[in-house]
Design brief:
The protein contains nine helices and four strands, in the order αααββββαααααα. With 149 residues, the protein is mostly helical. The strands form two sheets. A two-stranded antiparallel ribbon has the order 1-2. It has a two-stranded antiparallel sheet with strand order 3-4.
Amino acid sequence: MARDMLESPEVEAKEVLPTIRTTPYTNQECYDIVAKHLRHMSRQSFGVYDGSKICLYHHEGLRCAFGVLIPDALYDPCFERQRVDGVLRSSTALGDLFCHVDLDLLLFLQSTHDLECNWLNKHKMYQELIEIGKTFKLNTGYAERIWRT
Protein backbone atom coordinates (compact mmCIF):
# COMPACT_ATOMS: atom_id res chain seq x y z
CA MET A 1 0.00 0.00 0.00
CA ALA A 2 1.28 3.42 -0.83
CA ARG A 3 2.48 5.21 2.29
CA ASP A 4 0.79 8.45 1.18
CA MET A 5 -2.62 6.78 1.49
CA LEU A 6 -1.85 6.13 5.15
CA GLU A 7 -0.46 9.54 5.92
CA SER A 8 -3.14 11.84 4.53
CA PRO A 9 -4.82 13.48 7.53
CA GLU A 10 -8.36 12.68 8.65
CA VAL A 11 -8.96 10.11 5.93
CA GLU A 12 -12.12 8.13 6.58
CA ALA A 13 -11.90 4.34 6.58
CA LYS A 14 -13.53 3.98 3.17
CA GLU A 15 -10.84 6.16 1.62
CA VAL A 16 -7.91 4.35 3.23
CA LEU A 17 -8.36 1.11 1.31
CA PRO A 18 -9.00 0.58 -2.37
CA THR A 19 -12.23 -1.23 -3.25
CA ILE A 20 -10.23 -4.14 -4.65
CA ARG A 21 -6.84 -5.07 -3.25
CA THR A 22 -4.71 -7.47 -5.27
CA THR A 23 -1.72 -8.08 -3.01
CA PRO A 24 -1.78 -9.73 0.42
CA TYR A 25 -1.36 -7.58 3.50
CA THR A 26 1.71 -7.66 5.71
CA ASN A 27 1.66 -7.42 9.50
CA GLN A 28 3.13 -3.91 9.28
CA GLU A 29 0.49 -2.67 6.84
CA CYS A 30 -2.34 -3.99 9.01
CA TYR A 31 -0.83 -2.43 12.10
CA ASP A 32 -0.32 0.98 10.48
CA ILE A 33 -3.79 1.08 8.91
CA VAL A 34 -5.52 0.10 12.14
CA ALA A 35 -3.43 2.50 14.27
CA LYS A 36 -4.42 5.40 11.99
CA HIS A 37 -8.03 4.31 11.84
CA LEU A 38 -8.41 4.02 15.61
CA ARG A 39 -6.67 7.37 16.12
CA HIS A 40 -9.31 9.15 14.04
CA MET A 41 -12.38 7.23 15.19
CA SER A 42 -14.60 9.09 17.63
CA ARG A 43 -16.56 6.03 18.77
CA GLN A 44 -16.75 2.26 18.50
CA SER A 45 -18.44 0.49 15.63
CA PHE A 46 -21.13 -1.44 17.49
CA GLY A 47 -24.77 -2.42 17.48
CA VAL A 48 -27.20 -3.91 19.96
CA TYR A 49 -28.53 -7.41 19.34
CA ASP A 50 -30.79 -9.27 21.73
CA GLY A 51 -30.13 -6.58 24.33
CA SER A 52 -26.35 -6.96 24.18
CA LYS A 53 -23.83 -4.51 22.76
CA ILE A 54 -21.58 -6.13 20.16
CA CYS A 55 -18.85 -4.67 18.00
CA LEU A 56 -19.48 -4.79 14.26
CA TYR A 57 -17.08 -4.84 11.32
CA HIS A 58 -19.12 -2.35 9.26
CA HIS A 59 -21.94 -0.39 10.90
CA GLU A 60 -23.53 3.00 10.18
CA GLY A 61 -20.48 4.22 8.29
CA LEU A 62 -18.08 3.06 11.01
CA ARG A 63 -15.62 0.19 10.87
CA CYS A 64 -13.89 -1.67 13.63
CA ALA A 65 -10.17 -2.51 13.67
CA PHE A 66 -10.56 -5.58 11.45
CA GLY A 67 -13.46 -4.12 9.46
CA VAL A 68 -11.30 -1.28 8.16
CA LEU A 69 -9.07 -3.91 6.53
CA ILE A 70 -11.93 -5.56 4.63
CA PRO A 71 -12.29 -4.02 1.16
CA ASP A 72 -15.87 -3.07 0.26
CA ALA A 73 -15.92 -5.57 -2.60
CA LEU A 74 -15.21 -8.45 -0.17
CA TYR A 75 -17.46 -7.40 2.71
CA ASP A 76 -20.51 -9.56 3.44
CA PRO A 77 -23.01 -8.77 6.21
CA CYS A 78 -22.85 -12.45 7.22
CA PHE A 79 -19.38 -11.66 8.67
CA GLU A 80 -21.02 -9.77 11.53
CA ARG A 81 -21.09 -11.64 14.83
CA GLN A 82 -18.28 -13.94 13.66
CA ARG A 83 -14.79 -13.83 15.13
CA VAL A 84 -11.95 -12.67 12.87
CA ASP A 85 -10.73 -16.24 12.32
CA GLY A 86 -14.25 -17.32 11.34
CA VAL A 87 -14.48 -14.53 8.79
CA LEU A 88 -11.13 -15.53 7.29
CA ARG A 89 -12.25 -19.16 7.05
CA SER A 90 -15.60 -18.23 5.50
CA SER A 91 -14.09 -16.17 2.66
CA THR A 92 -11.38 -17.59 0.42
CA ALA A 93 -10.68 -14.11 -0.95
CA LEU A 94 -10.14 -12.68 2.54
CA GLY A 95 -8.09 -15.72 3.53
CA ASP A 96 -5.83 -15.00 0.56
CA LEU A 97 -5.65 -11.30 1.42
CA PHE A 98 -4.49 -12.06 4.98
CA CYS A 99 -2.35 -15.13 4.21
CA HIS A 100 0.86 -13.38 5.39
CA VAL A 101 -0.69 -11.78 8.50
CA ASP A 102 -0.41 -13.23 11.98
CA LEU A 103 -3.95 -14.06 13.16
CA ASP A 104 -2.97 -13.16 16.73
CA LEU A 105 -2.03 -9.66 15.56
CA LEU A 106 -5.49 -9.22 14.05
CA LEU A 107 -7.13 -10.52 17.22
CA PHE A 108 -5.11 -8.15 19.44
CA LEU A 109 -5.92 -5.18 17.20
CA GLN A 110 -9.60 -6.14 17.21
CA SER A 111 -9.57 -6.46 20.98
CA THR A 112 -8.14 -2.95 21.24
CA HIS A 113 -11.20 -1.66 19.39
CA ASP A 114 -13.65 -3.83 21.32
CA LEU A 115 -12.60 -2.86 24.85
CA GLU A 116 -14.89 -0.07 25.97
CA CYS A 117 -12.34 1.21 28.49
CA ASN A 118 -10.09 2.18 25.56
CA TRP A 119 -12.79 4.55 24.30
CA LEU A 120 -13.05 6.18 27.70
CA ASN A 121 -9.28 6.78 27.71
CA LYS A 122 -7.77 7.00 24.23
CA HIS A 123 -4.28 7.32 25.75
CA LYS A 124 -4.74 3.78 27.07
CA MET A 125 -5.66 2.70 23.54
CA TYR A 126 -2.47 4.33 22.22
CA GLN A 127 -0.36 2.55 24.85
CA GLU A 128 -2.00 -0.74 23.98
CA LEU A 129 -1.31 -0.23 20.26
CA ILE A 130 2.35 0.51 20.92
CA GLU A 131 2.62 -2.60 23.10
CA ILE A 132 1.02 -4.71 20.36
CA GLY A 133 3.50 -3.35 17.85
CA LYS A 134 6.43 -4.22 20.09
CA THR A 135 5.02 -7.69 20.83
CA PHE A 136 4.87 -8.46 17.11
CA LYS A 137 8.23 -6.79 16.42
CA LEU A 138 6.69 -4.12 14.21
CA ASN A 139 7.88 -0.60 13.59
CA THR A 140 5.77 1.62 15.86
CA GLY A 141 7.15 4.91 14.52
CA TYR A 142 4.19 5.70 12.28
CA ALA A 143 1.67 4.95 15.06
CA GLU A 144 3.65 7.08 17.50
CA ARG A 145 3.71 10.02 15.06
CA ILE A 146 0.02 10.01 14.20
CA TRP A 147 -1.10 9.54 17.80
CA ARG A 148 0.95 12.56 18.91
CA THR A 149 -0.67 14.93 16.42
